Amino acid sequence: MDVPELHPDLEPIAFLVGRWEGAGVGGYPTIESFNFGQEIVFGHNGKPFLTYTSRTWLLDEAGAKVRPLGTEAGFWRQLPDRQLEVCLSHPTGIVEIYLGEVVFNKIELRTDVVARTGTAKEYTAGHRLYGLVNGNLMWAYDMAAVGQPLQSHISAELKKVADFVPEVD
């Protein structure tokens, strides 16, 4: 299979492309702290956006998978002057639009718009940091939800396990 050439607009975020796997920790005032496993896939088809999927699962103390947790999918679009737009959707009825900036191998995103269905939990804002550190993708997510102010929710360290994942046309 031919690997499509990465669109030149995506050069600032090219380091994200591939499949990443690892583990992280989470907590929030309304829940108990937990450990989770994660897979993130950033793909492309040669057009000026990256596709994005993330799957997480609860881990027990030994690091074994217990059950699925969150899933999200979306698109990352690089804009001029190292600006970035990210559109994410969740099966729990939440859709987010993030705006941010790429500086070298560091990305900072803040929600610009949050929309949710009538059955979705109350969620009002998010802040995400992504960075490439010693070849690993480190990321952290702060959340404002269920009456709580914006604060730390989850973070993880992921290792790249595949350089390119083909997208279906």
Quick structural summary:
The protein is mainly β and about 170 residues long. It has strands at about 20-30, 30-45, 50-60, 65-80, 85-90, 95-105, 105-115, 125-135, 135-145, 150-160.
Structure description:
It is a single chain. The protein has strands at 18-28, 31-43, 50-59, 65-78, 83-90, 94-103, 106-116, 123-133, 136-145, 151-162. The chain is mainly beta and 169 residues long. It has a single domain, classed as Calycin beta-barrel core domain (Lipocalin, Beta Barrel). The chain is globular and about 45 Å long. Its EC number is 5.99.-.-.
CATH homologous superfamily heading: Calycin beta-barrel core domain
Strand order of the largest sheet: 1-2-3-4-5-6-7-8-9-10
The CATH class is identified as Mainly Beta
Number of strands: 10
Tertiary shape? globular
The N- to C-terminal Cα distance equals 13 Å
Provide tags for this entry.
169 residues, mainly beta, Lipocalin, 10-stranded antiparallel β-barrel, 0% helix
Question: How do the helices and strands line up, and which of them pair or pack?
Answer:
Blueprint: E1 18-28, E2 31-43, E3 50-59, E4 65-78, E5 83-90, E6 94-103, E7 106-116, E8 123-133, E9 136-145, E10 151-162
Antiparallel strand pairs: 1-2, 1-10, 2-3, 3-4, 4-5, 5-6, 6-7, 7-8, 8-9, 9-10
